[in-house]
Amino acid sequence: MVSDATLIYLALAVPLIGMFALMATSRWAGLRDALVVTTAAVMFSVVLQLLPRVRDGQRPSATLLELFPGLEIAFVVEPLGMVFALLASGLWIITALYAIGYMRGAKELHHTRFHVFFCIALFSATGIAFSANMFSLFVFYEVLTLSTYPLVAHKGNEAAKKGARTYLGLLLGTSVGLLLPAVIATWWLTGTLEFTPGGIMAGRVDPAIGAILLVLFMYGIGKAALMPFHRWLPSAMVAPTPVSALLHAVAVVKAGVFTVLKVSVYLFGLDYLRELATSELILYIAVFTLLAASLVAMQQDNLKARLAYSTVSQLSYIVAAAMLVSEFAALGGAMHIVMHAFGKITLFFCAGAIYVATKKTEISDMNGLGRRMPVTFFAFFIGALCVIGVPPMGGVWSKWHLFMGAYDSGYQLVVLALIVSTLLNIAYLIPPVVRAFLLPPPESEQTGGVREAPVLCVVPLSLTALGCLALFVLAGPLAELLRPYLAVAGG
Amino acid sequence: MSEHLPALQVVIALTAAPLVMLLNRLPRVAWGVTLVTCWATLLVAVLLLLQVLDGSAIHYEMGGWAPPWGIEYRVDGANAWVLLIIGLVSAVVMPFARRSVEQEIPADRIGLFYSAFLLANAGLLGIAITADAFNIFVFFEISAIASYALIAMGRDRRAVLASYQYLIMGTIGTTFLLIGIGFLYIMTGTLNLGDLAARLPEVTDTRTIRAAFGFIAVGISLKLALFPLHLWLPNAYSYAPSMVTVFLSATATKVAIYVLLRFVYTVFGFEFSFVELSMAWVLMPLALLGIVIPSLIAVFQDDVKRLLAYSSVAQVGYMILGISFASALGLMASVLHLFNHAITKAALFMAVGCLVYRLGGVSLTRMAGAAERMPWTMAAFVVAGLSLIGVPLTAGFVTKWYLLQAALMEGFWPVVALLLATSLIAAVYIWKVVEAAYFRAPPEDARELREAPLALLVPTWVLTGSTIVFGVWAQFPVAAARNAAEALLGVPQSW
What residue of A is the nearest CA neighbor of B421? Predict the structure, then answer.
């Protein structure tokens, strides 16, 4: 029986070891690419080892070091973190395969550098998932920002540099300018940063101060992309598509909403949150963001930009879920992390596959493309349905619980907003599919039957599309795993 | 032997200085003697610190003459900490110095150069260790005059002008200090710091003592480069030889800050300085201006040495800010920053020294694309730069953490916001250098570049590594800084 601490350290160490192995083998492209997938697979299996223990009600923990009295880098694996770590590491395997196909197919340069920073990003995402206190989480949060910067700037042209600068500026600016003071103030007011069921603020922090802290936290967690600090996400779309897929639909953005959930449940505590004057304000900002981003998404002709704004919108579902303070909403929010991840990564994989096969990025150029790339567009369709929340996709469950939660808490306006937003989802995600399958292709492209992207692009996107379907039946076990978290989060 | 450690702390370097001068014909030997001297100095500093970590103090009567007739050396948690900083930086910079100095200083002056360096070193150590006000002035002059010579030996002819500028400003500073000490002597009849502290309360309510306070505060502020009395610093740091910049940036201003603290807390006392004269309300605005304005100026510099020099002025602002909170926590944050900034800035200037060694100069245009050929040097710059910004797990973060808490304790929210904003400005100017080195193409007429020699790289990485070590394992510096703050406050604190 391997000890808890060993497993946790191993889960963190594997991507770093993999990183050095990649650097050492950068001269042999085949070997290096095989190592990327191996690293991802090993990491996932290590994380998977933790699952039975967490399901049995254990909380594996480890303390790495104590910076100075009271301030530690420490880890605890609880259900929500378990889910996030499984999600990130599991999808990394598929993304690694996809990235190999994409990077070769799209003739990108600097493959080793690309995979190296991917490893660091996954390392820090796992660190975020397992953090036992807000300080550790903050450290890994910053490492995640810094390690994804070179990935966004990967192409090295002016557009990439400009996008990357916005990316870094907003994420660092919000985290240093708002999150860090919130963390320090919390430490100073409560004397601890430990994630504690029920929160650490009740009885220690005056609700008036708490209300300010909540705003600082919610905007400080820039990765959750609440408006008006959402611009970094569309800017990040200059990155190669595997980055957009795993990092800017899963690891980075979900790290953001994961932090939102952690902070509201384990630092504020839901009872205390309910007392705060600003929790409703944040709820309405989230609702505004999810509507406004959907409207903006409809205007985007560039497929990746549309998906990015869709992500901004979907993230706000989860922030709203945290602010609704009900068991249904909490389950909906936690589930949506997973459901949206599968749906959105599929959509991005498809966008990348279309780019590799045809160099097309604009939706208006995709007329009739479904005849040429049927698998890709069918997967796109499934991913879109999952994000919208239509059975038999997993996405239906998270939406369902969100609706229930909003209704349950008596926020009829939020229920209405969710309905409108779902309609908007349909309005911006389905047209690309309709164009591709139903409209005739332009004269110049009439030739030749099916020509899909390389196998290494098509297989991963089919796998994640299947995942969307599988989650429809797997939602039960997922809810079961999350139950201890809900006991806390449901109040 | 061990009871003479306080004397040895200064005497070793002071006696080695003329010896090294005599070895002027043999530059390598001169370097070797200087190296051994500096390591011995570090050893003494470590031994002294270990003795006072329990909160005790060592009294040493020079030549057996009891104070107030003789000169007393007194070592407590506060100055042992400063002695360690000086010892550490000089011990690490010496291995670095050999190749760097051989390239930058004409061979027939290397012995003289090291001699001056040892004098500057001994002067700074003397300032820190002595408990005699006049002796502080004397050591200030020893270190200052030696520093003028060191700076003037820079390759660029403008170094001479920079040195002259420093000489004028420095002399005004020490003269003010001397006038202040004179006033104190007139009123109390003693120069021993402990005696002064005991006798001052009887006469504090006089104009002479207030004037003395003013002269001393302004005089030392000139030496520690408090904004807007910092004008000598950017030129001096930019044009001095590489190793001189490393050494002075890490030690000279720190020692001056220590002297300020010693006068404010030990001699005049907290009550007089902060309550009666409301010194905090003078220091805080100057500290804040001193953080913001030089940080902004740094962003627009093209020469990296000058950029870092302006950043040094801003960092002095952080230290003064901590003092201006007039709380134990603020004081401790300042004292901690003496150390953390010393190792951080020394590491940065060493990395710059490596670049100068290969490139001849460090304007942003000249160092464009340098990272490809000098990856280790630039990596050191990035890591130390992160510490300067205050990224978690670096030494710089630990200070920021305590400084922000001290600000929160007073409820100074705007100050908190400003501190964070200036961290971002630091990120901007460090980023400028990183962008030039990593993302720009090298200039057309670039010479063939190679990585800096190991003799330069290893010391650079020793300090760079220590910014990480003391960022991750901060218990030791935090404990030492708490001990130092307690020594200054005179009463144990509950942290």
Answer: A177
